[in-house]
From TrEMBL:
Residues 1-54 are annotated as: Disordered. Keywords: Repeat. Residues 86-144, 153-212 form the SMP domain. Belongs to the LEA type SMP family. InterPro entries: LEA_SMP (IPR042971), LEA_SMP_dom (IPR007011). This is SMP domain-containing protein. It comes from the Eukaryota. Residues 21-53 have a biased composition (Basic and acidic residues). The lineage of its organism: Eukaryota, Viridiplantae, Streptophyta, Embryophyta, Tracheophyta.
Length: 220
């Protein structure tokens, strides 16, 4: 087996279409596991308005740990609450601002970012010069033998301006969260280590926030 690192392929991000039954089962397992973890960790979302700045700070925590934090506009007169829904790009930036942003980028992170970019843009491949390409390059760089820990590329270096770099963006949904979690899980190190988890958690938190806002808007 060659030691040369390989780019993240479509089959690495999504289960192979040739095994449709297994693919559905794997996705169901990821969704079930994610739901169980969310229930155990009791995701809590708090919103703090900053009227003078015209913004709202939304923070998602679980088990005392900040999973994601977003700054969104405060809806004004005649503006629907749904306009401050969190996008996938904003979720990626939020991941960079949490403790996950301090981790060196690995292949699981790259796969999760690629899945997020694909869901955000609707494009079938990696966008040249985009966040997924940067994450893949960072992962390959970090795998070089003898590279000092302080020289490794961190997740924050790749995702710090994700919302601006993405050529297209969309509001994060539960389906997006499942796709990103699936990619992260399939490419995670055999011994664990949380590869891709920060990205997956941020997109999941964004999706949960958006669902809660949509529910409140409908009930209003």
């Amino acid at each position: 087996m060659s030691d040369q690192s390989q780019p993240v392929r479509t089959g690495d991000v999504y289960p192979p279409s040739a095994a449709a039954h297994d693919a559905r089962r794997q996705r169901d397992e990821v969704l079930t596991t994610h739901d169980d973890q969310q229930q155990k960790r009791e995701l809590r979302v708090t919103e703090t308005d900053e009227p003078h700045a015209g913004r709202r700070v939304v923070t998602a925590t679980a088990g005392g740990q900040v999973m994601a934090q977003f700054t969104v506009p405060v809806p004004g007169a005649g503006v629907e609450e749904a306009t401050d829904a969190v996008t996938i790009g904003e979720a990626l930036q939020a991941a960079a601002q949490t403790s996950a942003g301090e981790r060196p980028v690995d292949l699981a992170d790259a796969a999760a970012v690629q899945a997020a970019e694909t869901r955000a843009t609707g494009l079938g491949g990696v966008v040249p010069g985009g966040v997924a390409a940067a994450a893949q390059q960072a992962a390959e760089t970090n795998m070089r033998p003898g590279l000092a820990e302080e020289e490794k590329v961190r997740l924050r270096d790749v995702l710090g301006s994700a919302a601006a770099v993405l050529p297209a963006n969309k509001v994060a949904t539960r389906e997006d969260a499942v796709a990103v979690a699936t990619a992260a899980k399939r490419n995670a190190p055999a011994g664990g280590g949380g590869g891709g988890k920060g990205v997956a958690d941020a997109v999941a938190a964004a999706a949960d926030m958006n669902e809660k806002r949509m529910t409140r808007t409908r009930q209003a």
